């Protein structure tokens, strides 16, 4: 009997995910077609016969509704179409090559943000009001205030140009990963540290901790044994917007460091009106965000079973 409500919730989440992706793809399709210009508009116009062949090849000679229905039918079969900008590749091939790159950078950035953010937040909570706490929160505030398009060039200037410790860009070696991951992780480390500190301070002042505190448990042991797991519930809920932050930030970071990831393809596709590439990247990122939201909900349900019952 308990399995039935879980199956219903799972079915509801899958239906919600499908509707979300459909709306996302449809809105992106309409906005791309509404933008001025086209994928083959250049300073030197192509001969009319060449333009006609290109329009027929990419269905641009059809009415807008037929273009949408054709794209939607192909997308349902998993075919995202050919790329306008990279004619030798399909969108599926470009995404298959770019997704592991962006996933590696984003995954490492989130892991770094969680490790340092939770650690620094817990350290600040145990020393609340002291100079260590104030210094860490000041640094966290600076980390939130400085945008990624400023952080990334500063990292290049310091570690690549001045110190010559790391390469300024490129991809293929382990040291190419360091600076992009740091640039993506810094704002998330700052936010995670502030969130962890605030949540731990609330948890450590809860009534249910009076008994173990009266038994003589130190604040450090009290934190790890009783307070840390419930205090991390807000951090688990923050993982979804953190992922969105990493995805949106990757467009800037991958451009700065010349990384062949999803963000760079999205920017290049938008600048060149590559309709199919932009739509494919949007759908891939949307599906990833939906999947992460489902995993985060499951994680929060494990940490607090009352959420599952609700």
UniProtKB/TrEMBL annotation:
GO terms for cellular component: plasma membrane. The keyword Transmembrane applies. The keyword Membrane applies. Its main location: membrane. Keywords: Cell membrane, Membrane, Transmembrane, Transmembrane helix, Transport. It is a multi-pass membrane protein. Belongs to the binding-protein-dependent transport system permease family. This is ABC transporter, permease protein.
């Amino acid at each position: 009997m308990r399995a039935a409500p879980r199956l219903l919730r799972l079915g509801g989440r899958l239906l919600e995910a499908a509707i979300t992706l459909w709306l996302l793809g449809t809105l992106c399709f309409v906005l791309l077609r509404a933008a001025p210009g086209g994928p083959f508009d250049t300073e030197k116009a192509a001969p009319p016969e060449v333009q006609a062949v290109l329009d027929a090849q990419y269905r641009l000679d059809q009415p807008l509704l037929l273009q949408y229905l054709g794209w939607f039918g192909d997308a349902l079969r998993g075919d995202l179409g050919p790329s306008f900008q990279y004619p030798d590749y399909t969108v599926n091939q470009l995404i298959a090559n770019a997704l592991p790159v962006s996933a590696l950078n984003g995954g490492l950035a989130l892991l770094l943000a969680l490790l340092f953010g939770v650690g620094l937040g817990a350290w600040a909570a145990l020393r609340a009001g002291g100079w260590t706490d104030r210094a860490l929160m000041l640094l966290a505030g600076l980390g939130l205030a400085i945008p990624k398009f400023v952080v990334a060039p500063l990292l290049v200037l310091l570690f690549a140009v001045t110190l010559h410790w790391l390469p300024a860009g490129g991809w293929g070696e382990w040291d190419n990963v360091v600076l992009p991951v740091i640039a993506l992780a810094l704002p998330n480390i700052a936010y995670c540290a502030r969130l962890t500190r605030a949540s731990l301070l609330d948890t450590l002042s809860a009534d249910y901790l009076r008994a173990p505190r009266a038994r003589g448990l130190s604040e450090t042991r009290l934190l790890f044994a009783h307070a840390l797991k419930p205090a991390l519930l807000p951090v688990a809920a923050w993982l979804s917007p953190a992922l969105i932050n990493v995805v949106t930030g990757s467009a800037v970071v991958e451009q700065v460091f010349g990384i062949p990831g999803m963000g760079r393809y999205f920017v290049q596709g938008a600048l060149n009106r590559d309709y199919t590439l932009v739509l494919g990247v949007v759908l891939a990122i949307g599906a990833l965000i939906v999947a992460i939201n489902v995993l985060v909900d499951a994680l929060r349900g494990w940490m607090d079973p009352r959420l599952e019952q609700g």
